[in-house]
Amino acid sequence: MVKHIVMFKLKDKTPDNVDSLVNALEGMVGKIDSLRFLEVGRDFKESERSFDVVLTTHFDDREGLESYARHPVHQPVIQLAREICHPTVVVDYEI
Questions:
Q1: What's the pLDDT band for 18 if we cut at 50, 70, 90?
Q2: pTM for the whole thing?
Q3: Beta-ladder partners of 3
Q4: What DSSP line would sit under 12-35, residue for residue?
Q5: Where does the Stress-response A/B barrel domain start and stop, copy by copy (predicted)?
């Protein structure tokens, strides 16, 4: 199994921006064959070290992750994140 985790810090943390990102991320559920699990979390602590939103996804293998990365449903989510977030950090690992 491959886990793909992304943490997002919003450029302007407004409720609308948080909701837009969360809705876009959750909107991928059931639309990408290789995506086995998706969880979105909103930070509640709001410390200076905190990121605002986290995405955790699972795939069967590296090929599934690559398919997700190129998938047309994923592309507008990437674009939204690039527009309203900076920075983002990613970790991909196998278990």
A1: very high
A2: 0.96
A3: 58, 93
A4: S--HHHHHHHHHHHHTTTTT-TT-
A5: 2-93
